Amino acid sequence: MEEVKMIKKVLKGLTLALLSVLLVLPILSGSANAATNESNSSSQASSSSSSAITTGQEDSLAKIKQKGEIVLGTSPDYPPYEFMAKGKVVGMDVEIAKKIAKDMGVKLVIKKMSFDSLLVALQTGKVDMVISGVNPTAKRAKSVDFSKSYYKAGQYILVNKADKGVYKDMTSFSGKTLGAQTGSLPYNIAKKQAKNAKVKGMEQVSDLVIALKTHKVDGVVLDQPTAEAYAKNDSSIVAKDGKFKLGSSETSDVVALAKGSTSLRTQVNKSIDSIKSQNLVEKKYLKTAGSYMKVNTANTSMWHYWKYFATGVEYTIGVSAVSVVAGFILGILLAFMRLSKLRILKWLGTAYVEFVRGTPLMVQILFVYFGLGVIVNIPALLSGIIAVSLNSGAYVCEVIRGGIISIDKGQKEAARSLGMNAHDTMYSVVLPQAIRNIWPALGNEFVSLIKETSIVSIIGVSDMIYQLKIVQADTYRGVIPIFITMVLYFILTFTISRILRHYEIKMNKKVDTLV
């Protein structure tokens, strides 16, 4: 009976943990939203008296004016277009977005995510426009609409300073490795035009620069302003003209909009015409971005960025705590479904477990955020928690099911012979022994869950990996932020391992005492 009490205490603790985190979760979301709003407060319109200019079926502009805000999707790792400085998204593209929002009389809200998720976010209504060094390719035009071009730039190649005499242009990389951002125009151009060169794709430009400096790639293909920005702020690399053969669509940067947003595109084009007529990009926006980049390198010590790492730890713990409890409860439910004598319940439980274990967690997160987002708009933080919880439940189910099956049938028969019914036998005899037997396996699942939550960064959740990328892009340093993140993950996993080990020893002592 002492062991039963122990199990009940653990279950009670987990339930209390779930309730506590659920109470804290709105605070996390609220603080994140407040930070976003604060970082974009300068984009608040000077006047909100303008009225909708569209009537009829196409009302994309009217809808934005009605809600009073326009949501920008961007990948802030591409200076001077968009990057992180002083805890907010800045850059040439951000200044253009502010101008567009001001001309509409609405507030600008910025959503950060990986580059190859941006157009998906646009198609599923997560964002209203994408400004992130986007080029208007024919393939992309099938899925989204484009504005007029607001800037034209060539394609350059970053190389290590020691190799500047070796590599002259794209023809120098035969038999070598070129890096480029996955899903970007530089990646496609390098694939087509850099003959006999191996092209390696990565999601983040900061990762590509680290790969270059650590000799994992021999060059990195980037837009001219971005390549020059990195070279200007890092004396160990230089920017070379790649001399790629480019058409007008391959040198133009545009605003991407949802397919069929005619009225919104018309309004955006008006803002772009105003920007070009005043030459604001060259005269103002690039200079503004450059001033942030100077500040960006003023203090690159990791102590200066402790708040970023603290925020990452906060979100990682929050997502993990809720997912652990929700996954454990779901796992128990699924285990009983799989052990049920009712075929329909057994079939449903088995189908769920096999499907979830047979698909990658990354795909599940993208499906919950973007796929279900077509039906209901689920915030990124909640989407990450739901996906991780559903994934964890499938694995916990098998651990618990295995523990229940491992209990000798004689234990059940003895309990029934003493007059205990099936319910009492399960909860007073079988389940307590099963939990004790599977506790190490459950602990391993919980520890793994902390590390697996790192994948939620792909949809813009500010966990440790997301903050790591920000610090890398902000400081142009790659290895030190990675090392600090590794240490923080180790501290979290080691702490939870010690706690779980403490309860394992305590349960074993109770059993030894009873024996």
From TrEMBL:
InterPro entries (alphabetical): AA_ABC_transptr_permease_3TM, ArtM/GltK/GlnP/TcyL/YhdX-like, MetI-like, MetI-like_sf, Solute-binding_3/MltF_N
**Keyword tags:** Amino-acid transport, Cell membrane, Membrane, Signal, Transmembrane, Transmembrane helix, Transport
Which stretches make up the ABC transmembrane type-1 domain? 313-500
Compartments in which it is found? Cell membrane
* Membrane topology per record: Multi-pass membrane protein
Entry's SMART domains? PBPb
What stretches pass through the bilayer? Answer: 315-336, 366-388, 478-500
UniProt-listed Pfam families: BPD_transp_1 (PF00528), SBP_bac_3 (PF00497)
Presence of the UniProt keyword Transport in the record? yes
Secretion signal span: 1-34
PANTHER family xrefs? GLUTAMINE TRANSPORT SYSTEM PERMEASE PROTEIN GLNP, MEMBRANE COMPONENT OF AMINO ACID ABC TRANSPORTER
Which family does the similarity line name? Belongs to the binding-protein-dependent transport system permease family. HisMQ subfamily.
Q: What is this protein called?
A: ABC-type amino acid transport system, permease and periplasmic component
Taxonomic source organism: Paucilactobacillus hokkaidonensis
